[in-house]
Structure formats: structure tokens, C-alpha cells
Design goal:
One of its GO terms (molecular function) is hydrolase activity. The protein is an alpha+beta fold. It has helices spanning about 10-35, 80-95, 135-145; strands at about 45-60, 60-65, 70-75, 105-110, 115-120, 125.
């Protein structure tokens, strides 16, 4: 069998049309990114509660968690792997932007049930519900945890 298209060039008009379409899409995306016109934004629901959290390394795989300048928990990577994973990702961004690791994070519960961990120092925001209910519980517990001891305060 012979190829019926053998010896026939690819239609030039199709190639030009594809190039024009790709150029147009890139130009529109650049315009929206630069000007902000046409950008879709999601408004956050009103904040129900918020807590400022700081994390301090106290051992190889152990962290002390401060909320409102008081120690509320000490966790290990074995007991709270999700917390360690999220912090590792957020601290990577801080390292790239040379932001101090001691800067606080904001954990907030929104009226629509969103649980958001924010890093205001780099402008990053994570909706923790995306990781499932079991992982979300690890952070939601930090919203209401009482101090471990009344005299433990942030350094």
C-alpha cells in the first residue's frame, strides 16, 4: 500500500493558523497577568477564628508549637507527619526568599469551613481541606489547644 499523502506538503495555511492562535493565547495571558483585567479571583469567606502560630525546632524530628506566644504542643514527625510536610514546603519558600523561619504563620477558620494556613511573610496560602479530613484535623486542633504550661512563653 502506498501513502496517499506522500510527496504532498503539509498545508501552509494550517501552520500559519496554529502559530497565530498560539501567539494570541500567549498575548492574552500576558495581558491579564500584567494588568489584572479579566483575572478571576475568589473571595474568602469571613474569618470565624484565627491564631498566630510559630514553630521551633527542638530536636531532629521534633517541633514546639507556639500559639499567641505560649507553647501549645510539642510534636514529632512520627506523631504529626502532615504538619511536618506542610511546614517543610512552606519553609522551602521562605528559604528561597530569605525570610526568617521564626516569622509567624496564620491559621484561620472561615465561615464556609475553610481552614487556611497563611504565611504572610511570603504571601502563600494553603486551604488545608484539600488534603482530606484526617490531615485537616491535625491543624484544626491547633486553633483551640490550651497552653501546655502557664509559664511557657516564646523566646
Amino acid at each position: 500500500m502506498s501513502d496517499p499523502f506522500e510527496g504532498r506538503p503539509f498545508p501552509r495555511a494550517v501552520l500559519i493558523g496554529a502559530a497565530v492562535l498560539i501567539s494570541f493565547v500567549i498575548a492574552v495571558a500576558a495581558f491579564v497577568r500584567v494588568t489584572g483585567i479579566g483575572r478571576a479571583t475568589l473571595e474568602l469567606a469571613p474569618q470565624v477564628t484565627m491564631r498566630e502560630l510559630r514553630f521551633e525546632d527542638i530536636a531532629e524530628a521534633k517541633k514546639r508549637i507556639y500559639a499567641d506566644k505560649v507553647v501549645v504542643a510539642e510534636v514529632s514527625e512520627v506523631s504529626a507527619p502532615f504538619i511536618f510536610g506542610v511546614l517543610r514546603a512552606m519553609q522551602r519558600q521562605r528559604k528561597l526568599l530569605q525570610v526568617p523561619f521564626e516569622s509567624p504563620y496564620l491559621l484561620s477558620l472561615r465561615a464556609d469551613g475553610q481552614l487556611i494556613l497563611e504565611d504572610p511573610s511570603v504571601g502563600e496560602r494553603i486551604d488545608l481541606r484539600a488534603f482530606g479530613p484526617d490531615n485537616t484535623k491535625a491543624f484544626s486542633a491547633l486553633l483551640t489547644m490550651p497552653p501546655l504550661s502557664p509559664t511557657s512563653t516564646s523566646p
